[in-house]
Each structure stands twice: as C-alpha cells, then as structure tokens.
Design a protein that fits this description.
It is built from 13 helices and 11 strands. The chain is of the alpha/beta class and 462 residues long.
Length: 462
C-alpha cells in the first residue's frame, strides 16, 4: 500500500458522538449526583440552621404576618373603594333616569322668553313727579331673585309621573339679559316640551310679582311691567354642556372602577410562609433537582467537548473514516464484565456494534487466519501496543498459525535505532489499541514505515 497518509475527518458523526457520551455514563452519573448534592445539602443545612435560630424564625414569622396584614388591608380598602364607586355609578344612573335636565334632547329644546319694562318714574304724595336712579340695581335684584328661586321639576306637566325628591336645579335653565339703558329685563327658559316651557315661564312671572314689593322697599318706587312673551329659536348650549358633563363624570367613574378592579385582580396573597421542617426539605429537594439537571447538562457538554478535541481512536467506523486507505483485518470486542455496570456497558457496545457479542477467542482466531492469508511466507512485523491481555492473546494466536520464517513484535518505532533496524523491509500489521492510540502517533509510525519501504498489510483494533 503506497499511500500511507491519514485523511482528515470532515463531518461530525452524530452516532459516534452519541455512543461516546453513552460510554461515559459513569462520569455523567457521578458528576450529576455531586452537582445535585452540593446545592441540596447547602440549602438543607442552611434551612435547618435558620429553623433552629429563634430570633431569625421570629423575624420571619413577623414578616410573614406583616405581609399578610398588608395584603388583607389592601384587599379591604380596594373592595370598599370598588363598592363605593359602584354605588356612585348606580346613583348617577338613577339620577339621570329621574332628572329633567339630563333627559332633555339638546337638539329639541323649547325656548321661551318673557320681557319686562322698568318704569322708574313715580308720583310723590305731594303730587310731584320723581325718578328712581337705581335702575341697574333694581334689574340686577330681579335677576338674582329669579336665579335663586326653587322650582321643583316634578311640578312640570311632563314630570307628573316622576318623584319629586330629585335634587334637580332646573333654575340653571334660566338665562337673564338686562339692558340698563333701555330699562328692560328678559328671562329665557328652556324646556323639553312647550307645556313645560309655559309652566316654567309662568313660575318666573309669579316669582317676579312676588319679589316686586320686597325690592321696592329696599331700592325705591318703580314698576316692572311684562311687555312680551315669545318663542325663541336656536340651540341651547347650556343643556348640551350639562349632558356632556354628566357623561364625562360617568365615564370617569367607569374608568376608575376598571382600574380598581384590575388592582383587585392583580393583588396576590403573599407567598412568604412560616418556615417549617417540611418547607426546608422541599427547598432542599428543589435545589437538588436543579443541580441534577445542571450537572447532567454540564457533564454531557464536557463529554462532547472532550470527544471533539480528542485525538484517540475509539471505534472501527471512526477509524475507517479517518484511514480509508488502510485494510481493516478485524477488531477484538471490548471486554465483558459480570457486574451491573459491565452489563450496561455490554448493552451499549451491542447497540454500537452488534458483532461485539461474539466470543473474543473466536474473533482472535479469525483475525489470525486473515493475517496468515495476507502475509504468506514473508517476514512479518507486528507494530503497536501489546501490553493488553487481548493483544497478548492475539499475538499467541498469530505465532501458532503463521508459518512465516519470522514474526517480529515491536510496540513502536520510537524506541531507538535498534527498533528501526529490526523493522526495516518487513511487511507490517498495525495493532491499534482502542481508547489509547492517537491518530498523531499512528501518523508518525506510518511516516517511518513509508521511509523504510515497509508494506502495511492491514490494521487490527484491540
């Protein structure tokens, strides 16, 4: 075989990586158990110390009680606030249902006005004529009197079916306009129906008559005479403003209720509980499980990294991918043990290579027969590690079967000049020890054999 160079491995063999990890199950198990014990024991010992520390235990219990009290207080306050807001909303809705103003349609308001003329000239007892100069004060006094009068919405025709205890100040629907120069005073009322507007306007007229004597006694002689009643066209912005204000207030209450309800939903009962022995055990168990999972991950990761950076020969398939130019004469199965761990190893070996279940002695005899076939009567050099029991048993089989003039056995060619001289010119069979021989050492041996002109007949993995 002329080309004795090694071919680099280009692709990662997932199957070989999987079995490399499986073969390290002892390391993974021990590492994971240690990673589970360290945080579990630390948590358990720390918890037991805290459990026996009366001062710390008392502080913990007080803290738990304080958290619970704060939670109950917050729950009570939020519940009371929610009930209060709901009550306000219900009150607002009932008020709207019974309110005269809020049930008016701003686009269909009936407006009527009544105009009065002020005569400030009067006759004195002696027959002479005099003029009262308090025009502005007189007109303003009537405006104030009308604005302050109490008008019950239940007394209006359209409200005959409504309760009279609604605190509905419909005097806000009265608009006054006074002209001091023209000595006129106009009151405009807004109502939901023409009948209500007429009743409303009559109430204003009655209030003017009722207050005339009082204002006369305070501001002097005058006469206030009704001169005109008429319907007024146009929109009533006052009604629209009151309706908008009510809607805004109701929406604000709804938003506040939504926020309080969300706070009630998000309010969680505190999880800090009184420390007990069972809670200490549970905490230690949780930390142990976490450590076990972390240890399992780390151990598998370390095993994978070691496999990827390792240069050792671990299996037949892997070797053939690295050295496709070398003839594989056979591989001796891994050793079998009798313990439970060895049985598990045997199962893994069988998954990886079904031929591993074959008897080792039969495999050695078959390999020795192949060696005899490829060697013939030529001198033979066995090069490689021969310290293992499998290697020694194979060498004995070779000595018994081969009829060649001589069989030379060398561990490696780096032993010195004598080893190189003994190996020169002989056909060579390489003994590669699994999990011990590296590809770097094998390459060095192949380079020397190439320089010596030796022909490599095949490889045996032991």
């Amino acid at each position: 075989m002329n080309d004795l160079s090694l071919q680099p491995e280009c692709d990662l063999d997932i199957r070989n990586l999987f079995f490399a990890v499986m073969r390290k199950w002892r390391f993974i198990l021990v590492f994971s158990v240690i990673c589970a014990l360290i945080p579990g024991l630390f948590s358990g010992i720390s918890g037991i110390r805290k459990l026996h520390n009366s001062i710390l235990l008392e502080q913990t219990n007080l803290q738990a009680k304080e958290l619970k009290d704060n939670y109950e207080q917050s729950l009570s306050n939020l519940s009371a606030e929610s009930d209060n807001i709901k009550e306000q909303i219900q009150h607002q809705k009932e008020y709207k249902n019974r309110s005269y103003i809020l049930n008016m349609d701003p686009s269909r308001v009936y407006k009527y006005s009544i105009t009065y003329n002020l005569n400030n000239t009067y006759t004195k007892p002696d027959g002479s004529t005099a003029t009262n100069s308090n025009v502005a004060a007189i007109l303003n006094s009537y405006t104030i009197a009308i604005k302050n009068m109490d008008i019950d919405s239940a007394s209006l025709p359209s409200r005959a079916d409504k309760k009279s205890d609604v605190p509905d100040s419909i005097n806000t629907l009265i608009v006054s306009a006074q002209d001091n120069n023209a000595k006129t005073l106009t009151f405009t009322v807004s109502a939901a129906t023409p009948e209500d507007a007429e009743a409303f306007l009559n109430a204003v007229a009655n209030a003017v008559d009722a207050n005339q004597s009082t204002i006369t006694s305070k501001l002097g002689q005058h006469t206030l005479t009704e001169v005109l009643r008429k319907a007024v066209t146009g929109t009533d912005n006052n009604v629209n403003t009151l309706s908008t204000s009510y809607t805004t207030n109701l929406n604000s209450l709804q938003t506040t209720l939504t926020n309080v309800t969300k706070q009630l939903t998000d309010l969680k009962e505190p999880t800090l509980k009184v420390m007990t022995f069972s809670s200490v055990i549970a905490s230690a168990r949780n930390f142990a499980i976490l450590g076990l999972v972390l240890g399992l991950f780390l151990s598998v990761f370390i095993t994978c990294v070691r496999y990827l950076v390792s240069d050792r020969i671990t299996g037949t398939d892997e070797f053939l991918r690295h050295c496709p130019q070398l003839t594989m004469l056979g591989a001796i199965p891994r050793k079998k043990g009798t313990g439970l761990g060895h049985r598990f190893d045997a199962v893994i070996n069988h998954w990886e290579d079904p031929t591993s279940a074959m008897d080792s002695s039969a495999v050695r005899m078959a390999i020795a027969a192949k060696m005899e076939a490829v060697c013939g009567t030529n001198d033979l050099l066995l090069l490689g590690e021969s310290k293992s029991s499998d290697a020694q048993a194979l060498i004995n089989e070779i000595h018994n079967l081969l009829s060649s003039p001589s069989v030379t056995q060398l561990d490696n060619l780096s032993a010195g000049v004598d080893a190189v001289s003994a190996a020169r010119g002989k056909n060579t069979i390489l003994l590669v020890q699994r999990d011990q021989t590296t590809y770097r050492n094998l390459l060095q041996e192949l380079e020397v054999l190439k320089l010596l002109g030796n022909k490599v007949l095949g490889v045996v993995i032991v």
